[in-house]
Design a protein that fits this description.
Structural class: alpha/beta
Shape: globular
Number of strands: 26
CATH class of the domain at 34-187: Alpha Beta
Distance between the termini: 58 Å
Oligomer: single chain
Helix content: 25-40%
Radius of gyration: 24 Å
Amino acid sequence: MTPDHITTCLARWAKEMPRQLAIIEVRSGTQITFKQLDEDSSLVASGLLHHGVRNGDRVVVMVPYGVDFVTLAFGLFKAGAVPVLIDPGLGGKNILHCIRQSEPSGLVAVPLAHAVKTVMPAAFKSIKVSVTVGKKWFWRGPTLEQVKRDGDGGGNGDGGVTAEQAAAVLFTSGSTGAAKGVLYTHGMFGQQIRVLREHFGILPAEKDLPTFPLFGLFGAAMGMTSVIPDMDFARPAKVNPENIIRAIQQHRITSSFGSPALWETVSRHCQKKKITLPSLRRILIAGAPVAGTLLKRFEFILEPDCKIITPYGATEALPVTSIERREIVDDTWSRSERGEGICVGKAVPGAEIKIIKISDEPILKWDAALEIPKGQTGEIIVKAAWVTKNYFGRDDFTRLAKISDGETFWHRMGDVGKWDEQNRLWFCGRKNQRVVIGGGAKTLFTIPCEAVFNRHPAVKRSALVGRRAGNNRQAVIIIEPENKDGGAMKSRETFVAELLELAAAHPHTRSIKKIFFYSDFPVDARHNAKIFREKLAAWVERQ
């Protein structure tokens, strides 16, 4: 099946397996079948239309991940409206900026968000329809329950939309700059669901543990039962591992998606307590580079036939490539530790990838002369049916990120990487985080350099940043120690000497002579795994 849009998938499962549970909320015990989800979302769709939401309207959704969130999302899809999804972890100032940028005409939110709207109305001035999920206080507009009661169930069960119509605006995590609204169409979602299902072998009626809300929507569209764990989805690194383990064991979870930070916490706990998770058959880990040390830890936690897959992609383009744990542990990780980058595997079927000369300027038209030879590090670009075409309301960002190629286009991932001899892609870091020294004579990339320092047993993680400007610019490394005092049984001076000795042993880190220490790295809001090197660079300038 190649669906035109996401709601046709839900209608299919409601017909084929109506009594199968679509969502189970662990914390509240709330459950909903595919038939109920389809019917309730149709009530929401018709109720929203009754209360003034129109086809094509953008509606900000500020609701915790759960049954209400998924029902609302599908209800908006069916009404032909466009949900706007913003990470709550971005912080108040950034969230308000995203709301202003998306110019929504509707708001569906918990009472706290409505209270903010009341006291800070400027960011919400475009909103005409407000719906409260929960208890309404003194503001106008219906509650979600009123919307359902006013719905007649005729909310266009197939969505009533075309593949080219806008489906959602998803804001990026803002880990390397301002968060941008990525515009998805229904056709792109449909293609994305198809490639995820086919490439990763996802089957209907599987039990899924999604730790990122968007995958909960995809899970329902693919016929999976989504078991929503008891966790703060804005802080996956701070998850209580027992809550994840208990959900996996009690519901016999077969598949899960999560960030490296979440699985780092869970796997360490399993290793310490000698806990195994035999029901799992597939784990997808994404959101930041995945360390071989994490993948090796799963050896005694999972059954031998469980696949751990690390897809590479972005909000604008997912998936692009993928690679399985065994290939990393047995082959590529030793090369990563030597500073060759992180192998993210081969292109998924339907995705085209090229490596081009690095540029910070717009590239208006594709030219074959842009491509560089295999083995050289350059900018990663991708073309696929599920890759988004533009950023909402930001033509400047769109011009920088897209390259016209006849009737199609290439998306510039904003990452740097290279091909190996087996046509596997190696990720070397973010383009705008590279450090150019020697008056432009030498370029250092974050992932290869940091890998050298990360091999030291007292290093939790490291960050390459640039210090000073012009001909005086120098590359420095910031260390987050495993022990926050900067080294367990050795002095700081000994620690630094050992790190500099590691650097001197590799050509690409030999020029690094200065080391700083930072106790707890700032990370992105979405996955708690991408290092905010820009913030660390600003800190270093003040030292």
